[in-house]
Write a structure and sequence with these properties.
The protein has helices spanning about 10-15, 55-70, 85-95, 110-115, 135, 160-165, 175-185, 205-215, 235-245, 260-265, 275-285, 325-335, 335-345, 360, 365-375, 385-400, 405-420, and strands at about 45-55, 75-80, 100-105, 140, 145, 150-155, 155-160, 270-275, 295, 305-315, 350, 375-380. By secondary structure, it is an alpha/beta fold. It folds into two domains: about 10-155 and about 310-380, D-Maltodextrin-Binding Protein, domain 2 (3-Layer(aba) Sandwich), CATH 3.40.190.10; about 155-305 and about 385-420, D-Maltodextrin-Binding Protein, domain 2 (3-Layer(aba) Sandwich), CATH 3.40.190.10. It starts with 11 loop residues before the first helix and ends with a helix. About 50% of the residues are buried.
Length: about 425
């Protein structure tokens, strides 16, 4: 797997860059947009502009060569956009009417962009059933899809098997109680400073707490997304469980930033929760043979098994003047063979479920575990204000973990603030 560390793609970057309705555009609702139109048959023609971020922006020109070979009368111009300026660049382009035809869109930007009537509804050309359910849900706003999942990631528990065995643990933790027992056992192991690395609040901490709420049968909005439900007993119990790792001395309330890989390799912190990009990071740092010293496991279960799904979507902008060719490109990029080629180029995990039958994915036990977790990985609600709410969520997690404040009171305060912010 290619060595690289990606920020929580389309997610934590979006949290840092959130902007509300852009540049004075009139506020609209998703219902104002026309339903999805059919795509004409035949080869794609004309010129397409495409924006993509990070490594994807750098590698995409090579991938679209296959599309151009199948459609010799089309020109595809790819612009690589830095993640740290992407959100503002998109909102400015939406306001000015200068959006690209196709773009990589962070999953938590969907509600905002659809609220601005910036995205074209997904046509029947794309079969939504071929994607992981959680990934497909990130494209949907008020029951309508406005993009397709391009690549995915989810979070697993990384743990040092050698240190676990030395502490008397020989199996991966399957339940909440198992995880707590493993952390407690590891606390006394030689060289271990903190058994598990967890974020004590701050940007992105909600991405670990929310799956615990889901695992306990909780939700943060009601079924029709008309009200927040942060302060339910299920969610309170989940936050109390998360808090307990800090109050019981199993996780550091003041961790040093950027040391997760080094602490894992040294054994000082033998567990953490993260995505697939960390595999190459720890293995390269650990050197030859280190891959055999750790394992990954699906998130432990309370009522059910759940994890967080991330990644990026591909969207066609409603202002595109070459809309049919744009969707034909999106269709090409989400074909099984193209998804496997993209994985080979970038290590981005396929969003198309059938691509996981490829030998390169099935033969790697750790990657296969990520594939299994994707079956029960979910996204936050697709509401326009989610990123504002997530910032408030992070702040309450910080108060609970660092100051030891009451979890129920914290979620009650979050419920009030989220209700004040509204759904958008």
């Amino acid at each position: 797997m290619k060595t690289r560390k990606r920020a929580l793609v389309g997610l934590t970057v979006a949290l840092a860059l959130f902007g509300t309705a852009a540049c004075g555009r009139a506020e609209t609702t998703p219902g104002d947009q026309a339903p999805a139109q059919e795509v004409t048959e035949g080869a794609a023609t004309g010129t397409l502009t495409v924006w993509a971020m990070g490594v994807e922006g750098e590698e995409l020109p090579g991938l679209v060569e296959g599309f151009k070979a199948e459609n010799p009368d089309v020109t595809v111009n790819v612009t690589a956009v830095p993640w740290d300026s992407a959100h503002d660049r998109f909102t400015a382009a939406i306001a000015a009417g200068t959006t690209p035809d196709v773009a990589q869109v962070g999953t938590t930007w969907m509600g905002e962009f659809v609220g601005l009537n910036a995205l074209d509804p997904t046509p029947d050309l794309i079969d939504p059933s071929m994607f992981f359910e959680g990934a497909q849900s990130t494209t949907e706003v008020d029951g309508t899809s406005y993009a397709v999942p391009w690549y995915v990631e989810t979070r697993l528990l990384y743990y040092r098997t050698d240190i676990a065995e030395a502490a008397g643990i020989t199996e991966a933790p399957a339940t909440w109680d198992d995880l707590k027992a493993m952390a407690t056992a590891m606390k006394g192991a030689e060289g271990v400073r903190w058994p598990i690395s967890l974020l004590p609040g701050g940007t992105g901490s909600w991405q670990t707490v929310l799956p615990l709420m889901w695992s306990n049968g909780g939700q943060v909005v009601n079924d029709d997304q008309t009200a927040f439900t942060f302060d339910t007993p299920e969610n309170v119990e989940a936050l109390q469980y998360y808090q307990s790792f800090f109050t019981e001395g199993l996780a550091n309330t003041a961790p040093t930033s950027g040391t997760t890989e080094a602490d894992f390799v040294s054994g000082a912190v033998p567990m953490f929760i993260s995505g697939p990009w960390m595999m190459s990071s720890v293995e390269n740092l650990g050197g030859e043979g280190f891959a055999d010293q750790y394992a990954v496991a699906e998130m432990p279960t309370k009522v059910t098994n759940a994890s967080f799904i991330g990644g990026s979507n591909l969207a066609v902008f409603s202002a595109s003047e070459n809309r049919d060719a744009a969707w034909k490109l999106v269709d090409y990029l989400t074909q099984e063979e193209t998804q496997i080629e993209w994985f080979d180029m970038t290590s981005d995990l396929p969003s198309v479920q059938s691509a996981w039958d490829d030998a390169a994915l099935q033969s790697d036990e750790k990657l296969a575990t990520f594939g299994a977790q994707l079956e029960t990985a979910y996204a936050p609600p697709a509401i326009q204000t989610w990123e504002q709410v997530a910032n408030a969520f992070d702040a309450e997690v910080e108060r609970v973990t660092i100051t030891g404040s009451d979890a129920a009171a914290g979620l009650s305060a979050l419920q009030q603030e989220a209700t004040s912010i509204g759904m958008g």
